[in-house]
Amino acid sequence: MSIDLIALLALLVFLSIFLVRNRKQLQTFSFLKVFYFCMYRTRLGMTAMERWARRSEGLLQKAGYVMIPLGFLGMFVMIEELIRGAVNLVQNPGALTVGVVLPIQAKGVFYVPFFYWFIAILFIMVVHEFGHGIIARAHKVRVKSTGFAFLGAIIPIVPGAFVEIDEKHLAKQPKYTQLSIFAAGPFVNIVFGAVFWGLLLLLQPAAQGLFVADGMTITQVADGSPAAITGLAAGELITQVDQAPVRSVSDFEKAFARKKPGDTVSIMTASGAKEATLAGTSKSYLGVQVSEAKHLKESIVASRGVLLPTLFVWLVELIGWLFLLNLGVGLFNLVPIGPIDGGRMFHTALQHIVRHHHARRVWHTVSVVLLAILASTLISAFV
């Protein structure tokens, strides 16, 4: 049993005990007697929100207004990506599309090693909700509580956090104030994603210089894909594509950049050469996810040992995950679906443009359509 799995099980046990011991303080919504969503209210961070809001009230208000058009731009990008993903799924059944971000390796799951996942999710939740809260207080909108949320099936599975804003007070505010508060959480995540991206660009070359690349390890193979038909399997090491050495992600991408659907490629692995006929319509499709396989240079081990280089690389990889997950969560929250931030922004904007009952009807229709696209994409990843 790996250390990641042990840590994950320990976290689930801890959260389960926590929910049982604090069940009287929970607000719980259950369905089908198995699934539930519960909220645990606290006042954590409220003093800091108040202090920061009062210290830079004018600046935060102006920043909130800037977030609004950027939030709608991100919304349009995400709508396009959802539609593009659905079209790609129709053209390439079995294509690897979106997945649930979890620290477990399973079909349909976007796997993140446990400790990276835990640190990144905790960071993302805190800064996201703090963003909502501090912009709300900058506009003097009341914040009733903060807290943690859990979506579960018998045991808690997906953790979350929230800032509970006084909805009656918020509804009396100008529309641009409401929009800036809704946009704040995703915007903060995207900004931190950009910061971590900059750090990654700065540190990644040094981290890569510590290693010798061995090839590309297959981490996942889509069922029914050309890779699966050829016999490629997770765990295999790809060293060449059409006799060209493959040592990095860029090498792997270049090897397939000029390929077309129907082309045959020779893929060299540790078990020998295998030929695959690429699928797809407008773009070639093999059906694998890969990661770089590498080992520390002997000269580095001799001069620095193993511990310090390993810790440095771990930190750089954590920064990479913080970049990807902050950006992903920030953009996903801008999708105009129901009660998430993008949905609330879309509904608020519609109320300013059309009559209230028409706004609600359009908002509901768009939410249902996008939710159906998202659900079908997620289900296809598991099925």
Protein model, in words:
This protein is of the alpha+beta class. It has two domains: 3-205 and 324-338 and 368-382, no CATH class; 212-295, Pdz3 Domain, CATH 2.30.42.10. It is built from twelve helices and twelve strands. The strands form three sheets. Strands 7, 8, 9, 10, 11 and 12 form a six-stranded antiparallel sheet that branches. Strand 5 (143-153) and strand 6 form a beta hairpin. Helix 6 (175-208) packs antiparallel against helix 10. The chain is globular, with a radius of gyration of 23 Å. The mean pLDDT is 88.
Structure keywords:
12 strands, Pdz3 Domain, single chain, 383 residues, 6-stranded antiparallel beta sheet, 2 domains, globular, alpha+beta, 12 helices, 4-stranded antiparallel beta sheet
Q: What topology does this entry show?
A:
Layout: H1 3-21, E1 26-31, E2 35-42, H2 46-55, H3 57-91, E3 100-102, E4 109-111, H4 114-138, E5 143-153, E6 155-165, H5 167-171, H6 175-208, E7 211-221, H7 226-230, E8 237-241, E9 244-245, H8 249-257, E10 264-269, E11 272-277, E12 288-296, H9 298-304, H10 307-332, H11 341-353, H12 356-382
Parallel strand pairs: 3-4
Antiparallel strand pairs: 1-2, 2-5, 5-6, 7-8, 7-12, 8-9, 8-10, 10-11
